[in-house]
């Protein structure tokens, strides 16, 4: 607990400074060296949002603050445009449809009808209740607690496009004994998309830059089998996943997100983001 308090205090100090230095994780051959204990537990913030939700830019800004403080290898944002049509629907002023069937399925399953709201590593999910939902004001504390927790599995991945097909190879390295089966999910997100957004002061920003937008899942939305219990340090889990590349997406602005979770609780044990080559 003292470590968590110390990390939260450090977070507050970082936000008080005009800028900060980010210490990157070790690299091996151009990719993160995940085979050693140097990798730390990362955070996936699923930000449920909409371009006609006037408070949603505040949530996006909170993710940016966390990324600026800790780096995009530790804090991974995912903007899921899903929820009531008055927040996510299109019209002449808000013409871009950012919604996806996968995003709608996730939103329906985890159950919210208000925006903005989010989940941090899907912690505290139960079949009833809403303890897994959190306001963006709580994301710094929840992220600090997650980053301070034990890393149970390290991840490594590469993503390439060839002949119009995206191919993602992922490997997992248990850091402790894991006594529950694991699933893996792989998705594509895109940033730097300029499209109108309703702002907190009720104005319309026609040049708003949307970040971390969910484009599609490479795996099934609910993941695929990745490892069967028991798994122990020294084991290597692996898989390859493919998706037809959508040429409407800008490759240089896109990235692949890979996360491993328990399929019974949906709790995310580790997440990484990798560029697309």
Structure notes:
With 277 residues, this protein is an alpha+beta fold. It has one domain (2-11, 25-275): Immunoglobulins (Immunoglobulin-like). It has five helices and 17 strands. Strands 8, 13, 14, 16 and 17 form a five-stranded antiparallel beta sheet that branches. Helix 1 (2-16) packs across helix 5.
SSE diagram, text form:
Elements: H1 2-16, E1 27-28, E2 31-32, E3 43-49, H2 56-70, E4 75-81, H3 85-88, H4 101-110, E5 117-120, H5 139-147, E6 153-162, E7 165-174, E8 182-190, E9 193-194, E10 197-198, E11 204-205, E12 209-210, E13 213-217, E14 224-227, E15 237-244, E16 254-261, E17 268-275
Parallel strand pairs: 3-4
Antiparallel strand pairs: 1-2, 3-5, 6-7, 7-15, 8-13, 8-14, 8-16, 9-12, 10-11, 16-17
Helix pairs in contact: 1-5
List keywords for this structure.
277 residues, alpha+beta, Immunoglobulin-like, 3-stranded mixed sheet, 17 strands, disordered N terminus
Summarize the structure.
By secondary structure, this protein is α+β, with helices and mostly antiparallel strands.
């Amino acid at each position: 607990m003292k470590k968590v308090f110390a990390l939260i205090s450090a977070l507050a100090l970082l936000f008080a400074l005009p800028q900060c230095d980010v210490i990157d994780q070790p690299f091996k051959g151009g990719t993160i060296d995940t085979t050693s204990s140097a990798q730390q537990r990362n955070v996936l913030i699923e930000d449920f949002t909409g371009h006609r939700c006037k408070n949603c830019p505040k949530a996006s800004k909170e993710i940016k603050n966390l990324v600026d403080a800790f780096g995009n290898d530790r804090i991974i944002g995912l903007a899921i445009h899903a929820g009531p049509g008055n927040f996510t629907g299109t019209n002449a002023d808000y013409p871009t449809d950012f919604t996806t069937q996968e995003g709608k399925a996730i939103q329906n399953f985890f159950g919210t009808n208000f925006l903005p709201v989010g989940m941090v590593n899907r912690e505290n999910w139960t079949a009833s209740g809403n303890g897994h939902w959190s306001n963006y004001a709580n994301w710094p504390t929840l992220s600090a607690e997650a980053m301070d927790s034990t890393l149970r599995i390290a991840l490594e991945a590469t993503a390439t496009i060839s002949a119009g097909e995206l191919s993602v190879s992922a490997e997992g390295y248990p850091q402790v004994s894991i006594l529950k089966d694991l699933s893996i999910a792989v998705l594509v997100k895109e940033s730097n998309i300029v499209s109108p957004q309703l702002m907190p002061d009720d104005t319309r920003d026609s040049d708003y830059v949307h970040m971390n937008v969910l484009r599609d899942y490479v795996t099934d939305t609910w993941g695929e089998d990745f490892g069967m219990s028991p798994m122990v340090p020294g084991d290597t889990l692996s898989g390859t996943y493919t998706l037809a590349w959508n040429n409407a997406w800008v490759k240089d602005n896109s990235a692949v997100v890979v996360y491993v979770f328990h399929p019974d609780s949906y709790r995310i044990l580790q997440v990484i983001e990798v560029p697309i080559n």
